[in-house]
Design brief:
Distance between the termini of chain B: 59 Å
Helix content of chain A: 25-40%
Order of helices and strands of chain B: EEHEEEEEEEEHEEHEEEHHHHHHHHHHHH
Oligomer: heterotrimer
Largest sheet of chain A: 2 strands, antiparallel
Low-confidence stretches of chain B: none
Distance between the termini of chain A: 38 Å
Chains: A mainly alpha (about 100), B alpha+beta (about 475), C alpha/beta (about 475)
Radius of gyration of chain B: 29 Å
Shape of chain A: flat
Strand content of chain A: 5-15%
Order of helices and strands of chain A: HHEHEE
Strand content of chain B: 15-25%
Strand order of the largest sheet of chain B: 3-6-7-10-1-11-12-13-14
Helix content of chain B: 25-40%
Low-confidence stretches of chain A: none
Chain lengths: ~100, ~475, ~475
Amino acid sequence: MSADLSPEEVLKVAHLARLELSQDEVTKFTEQLQSMLGHAGDIAALDIHDLAPTAHPFGLINVLRSDEVRPSVDRDEVLSQAPKAVDGRFGVPRIMGEAP
Amino acid sequence: MSLPEGWNMVVGLEVHTELKTATKLFCGCANEFGSEPNTNTCPICLGLPGSLPVLNEGAVELAIRIGQALFCEVRPSSFARKNYFYPDQAKDYQISQYDEPINAEGHLDLPDGTRVRIERAHLEEDTGKTTHLGGSGRIHGSDESLVDYNRSGVPLVEIVSGPDIRSAAQARAYAAELRSILIAAGASDGRMEEGSMRVDANVSVRRGPDAPFGTRCEIKNLNSLRSIQRAVEYEALRQINMIEAGETIIQETRHWDEDSGKTSTMRSKEEANDYRYFPEPDLVPLAPSAELIQKIGAALPPMPAQRRADLTALLGGAITDAQADHVLSVVESNLDRFMVSAVTAGAPATLAIARVANELSAQLPKAEELPEADFSALLLLEHAGELSATQAKAVLADLVEAGGGDPKAAAVARGFEALETGALDAILDQVIAENPGEWQRYNEGDDKLAGFFTGKVMALTKGQADGKAVNTGLRSRRG
Amino acid sequence: MSVTDLAAKIRAGETTAVAALEHSLSVIAERDGELHAFVEVQTERARERARTIDAAVADGKNPGRLGGVPVALKDNLCQRGTVTSCSSKILEGWIPPYDATVVTRLMEAGAVIVGKTNMFDFAMGASTENSASGPTRNPRDPSRVPGGSSGGSAAAVAAEMVPLALGSDTGGSIRQPASLCGVVGVKPTYGLVSRYGLVAFASSLDQIGPFASTVADAAELLEVLAGHDPMDSTSLTSPVPEISAHLSDGVQGKRIGLCTDLVEGSDPEVVAAVRRAAEVLAAAGAEVVELSIPELRYGLSAYYLIAPAEASSNLARYDGVRFGNRVDGVDVTAMNTATRTAGFGDEVKRRIMLGTYALSAGYYDAYYAQAQRVRTLIIDAFAKAYENVDLLLGATSPTTAFEIGSKVDDPMSMYLSDVCTIPTNLAGHPALSVPFATGSDGLPIGVQLLGPGLSEEWLFAAAAVLEGGAA
């Protein structure tokens, strides 16, 4: 059993995930994803809508830390790993469009 | 400003406020404005591989304070990831609250009596800041951008109102009142110009007060109370003009330009990101105890509405519109405590409110540092007649500039010589004794001689005596 | 020699940390050219560390519970100042500015970190063939896979390059390679070991755990790693189980359930090994019953929605902005896309897309939310089973190690090999694989013991019994 996943949807999803696919990859991934989602069909059919989804296996709640300053990390050490560092900041190519 | 005949506007505001915590929401980096770029960062707020968030209990307390101040239900809540790519978003997702916000279903009453519903007030983390190089320094046309993550992870509360606002003036009033409340609660410093409080407005129009809501547009990042009012007004008119011209409103996000006084398209909501919200697996749910919620609520200082009522009572209850405006502005600028302590010390309420609303507020923000006792002492001097109004205003300016001080000494420094009532009496007696003839004629009713005596007193005090007080002193000696 | 004995000898001055390290390095030199268990050997750094340990001992100081013991780390564990690449092109050469909590604890215990081991591209896959640096080979048969994703760590211990290694387990990535390589591998209770500094794959499922050649050695390592960490909000505050203290408790009076759902569908020799394991436990005084937990069969589907969904979000940060290998673009979006397209392998891309789809508008409820409900179903089913038994027994992997290259084009069959291990990750329960038999093909067969949350004490005790009865 296969899910209804079209190549158009695969491209949409790839864009959301910032991945570029070749035409061959679109075909291949569409097939593979359809097959994987098809397997997921066995749980889609389960009548368990009254069960609460589990986000954490044990019921931990209220994990907090006190509002006290802790040492920050050394800027040079972090920037030494940056693809492009300019004046103490991370350089990126131009941004098209405002933040959501 | 009024809309064309028959038209109504519907406005909801979303306000993001930074919280006044020592550290960020999920890490121990300092929550500090103005530091050198990327010096308040760590693996967590930089989103480095392997890092994990841990919730700041100070931020939770302030969020609950806000909820209490807005009469919200403080609820068990959980965190969710809002997924989108943007360079100032260190993890390319924001940790926020979605299905289960910490505060919901409250309200805020405007000074004009309108009740605006508060749908929710939830916790989320702030982003870093980008600066754009090349071009005009704005995003469009720049060659490169630089990112500073000092602000990444700073705690925010997002407060969403219901679509209950019906005019541009009300929108401004809502933002002003909310800001006052946030400052009063100690949760935020409300500095819109620094970005610690950011307002987005959702505006739509409809024909008549009962018509269904029209398509709305969102106006982002309004940086002052004035821009909120101007932008909402502009946008409502823009939409009305379009509809009357037969055009359809597209649901979109628009940018307000302060210089041109217009909103313009940013992006269409149809292309909106699919944020793929899901429960944050690295955090556990939050369930503040009833005890904690109650304790925080009980410790809240009086809110602006209460403080306005208190000032009104001090003024005798039935106040004029001008006084009401003063009351509003005095509480809004957080200076009402000066009035209250001055009145407690014995100064008249009308004098106190005038000096606070007019002179003291003109010297913000320095005025905040003036000790209340110094202000009260100055008003008492003025009230006693030892300083004229003009002199008192000058001394007040000096005191604020100096961050406080003895009003008498400040008067002396100015050459005003605020005289003790006793000192004036002594001088008056001396002048009377030296001029018995004139005194006799004045005593017998020659009022014009008051000027003679005043002149003598002025000569002796080098002009520092208060003319009114001299006259009072003369008349009381006449018997 | 056990790890405890080695540490004791070093502390007593009967041998040295340097000698232990040099032995490790010589085995690595001899075998790793072929096996490729390591992606990086920290020769000089380790030598200096070993010398420091020996100096402390000479000074009369206690070097720590694992003083001088060589340990290997899976390459998804952050170690400050050295590369943590997750065997991925996108993180190739990345040097973290901080240590994972487990690394800090190993250092405090005096361990000598020898190097980083090979894994799959971000821990995804089932054969260590999806590694940017090439596959690791099974020490028992180098034409075969060691399993994964912690294949390098399993192989390093199996080849006796190091007595101890750390791996991570999201759906079986410690237990499965342990079974395929013939060593002990443990996935602890979720939250027992801090995840701070573990490069995240699926946050609600990931756990760090030990590889060792014996149950006792695994216990030593786990006790050093375990315990609350304020840097990890999902870290448990309950006391750490006293595993070593209870290791010889045996299984007298314990009820153990042979879970048929975790056995059927396995190769006949694997089934036979599990049945023989049941007999060993019975002979040692346990009451062994057969039971079925049919809900477990939904675990695979639930896992293959939850894990990719969380991973799609966890891997969004690899955008070429702050770290990693950037591929430039005309604007930042183009740069993000080019960077991720070049830097992630096929398996990673596949899972990111599957996860993104499962979370997207219109599909969230049918896929992701439904999978989280299945999780509740499985947790409840386990809880019911554990009302009747103390532990469960099953296969770890349905097969022995397969040949390198034989499954690369068939992702689904690789996914199916996780069917026995996945349910424990969904429930957050502990489980371990103990080497128990050898197939007629000469390849190791491990059996799996599972327990409820924080049951490590009797889990390890039962494992010790099986170890004693292993063929």
